[in-house]
Amino acid sequence: MAGHSKWANIKHQKAAVDKKRGKVWTKLIREITVAAREGKTSDPNAYPRLRLAVAKALGANMPKDTIEKACKRGAGELGADNYTDVTYEGYGPGGIAVLVETSTDNLNRTVAEVRHAFSKNGGNLGTNGSVAYMFKNLGVMSFAAGVNEDALMEAALEAGASDVLTEEDGTIEVITTPEDFAAVQTALVDAGFTPDSSEVTMRADNLTEITDLEIAEKLLKMIDLLEDLDDVQEVYSNADISESVMTALAAE
């Protein structure tokens, strides 16, 4: 059950992702809208994906009335927005596998912008299925160092968690299936274990270490460009940038 994980490497190392609150809220509103439409309800308690989207919005300090309007709009109670979820796949510099989740009302615009972000930084957009098989959809809850590991592990596994991972720095991750995420999180909070962060995300089965400074720079620029697009919700990769390269990048 215990081990060292580098899954969050690139996500936690990038300090510049989504700095602007307005852009974060725009993405979250779209996520809520799509989830409400998919679940055909404006009630977060009635549909797991909507409940998760609302929880993320509350975590980003979005006003409750804004959240409620997005829920109702998605459910068609205020006039629905015609957003569609599309996932793009491709390869970044150094052959790094990249998944790009989008929510869009204009497919032609979105694919053109995503393709430009790839090609501008030495990557290329692939076909459906080209890299998706390398990733798994997981629920992840992170807990600070110092938490009672044995008690947390017992509570998590009893609640239905798939795995519990202990990092080298003492932090702990609880892994679930997407379907069990909400139930496990609720059970852990009820047991006195509130995660520092929690999300349903995509993780690669195997990571590719990057030791070349130029490749790392291009990859980070590409990911920044993708994440800055209004239609892009999330960007995932199988990159594991070495500590020496990250140190060199930080010194520039």
Gist of the model:
By secondary structure, this protein is an alpha+beta fold. It has helices at 9-13, 21-39, 48-59, 64-74, 107-120, 149-159, 181-190, 213-227, 243-251, and strands at residues 84-91, 97-104, 124-125, 135-143, 163-166, 172-176, 197-204, 208-210, 232-237, 239-241. The radius of gyration is 19 Å and the shape is globular.
SS element count, helices:
9
How would you describe the oligomerization state of the chains in this entry? Answer: single chain
Question: Residue share in helices?
Answer: 40-55%
Return the CATH architecture of the largest domain. 2-Layer Sandwich
SSE arrangement, N to C: HHHHEEHEEHEEHEEHEEH
* Cα gyration radius (Å): 19 Å
Mean pLDDT: 85
How many strands, what sense, and barrel or not for the largest sheet? 4 strands, antiparallel
Structure description:
With 252 residues, the protein is of the alpha+beta class. It has three domains: 54 residues, Orthogonal Bundle (Arc Repressor Mutant, subunit A), CATH 1.10.10; 98 residues, Alpha-Beta Plaits (2-Layer Sandwich); 51 residues, Alpha-Beta Plaits (2-Layer Sandwich), CATH 3.30.70.980. It has nine helices and ten strands. The protein has a four-stranded antiparallel β-sheet with strand order 3-1-2-9. It has a four-stranded antiparallel β-sheet with strand order 5-6-4-7, with helices on one face. The longest helix is centred in the N-terminal third of the chain and has 19 residues. It is globular.
What are its keywords?
252 residues, alpha+beta, Alpha-Beta Plaits, 3 domains, 4-stranded antiparallel β-sheet, 9 helices, disordered N terminus
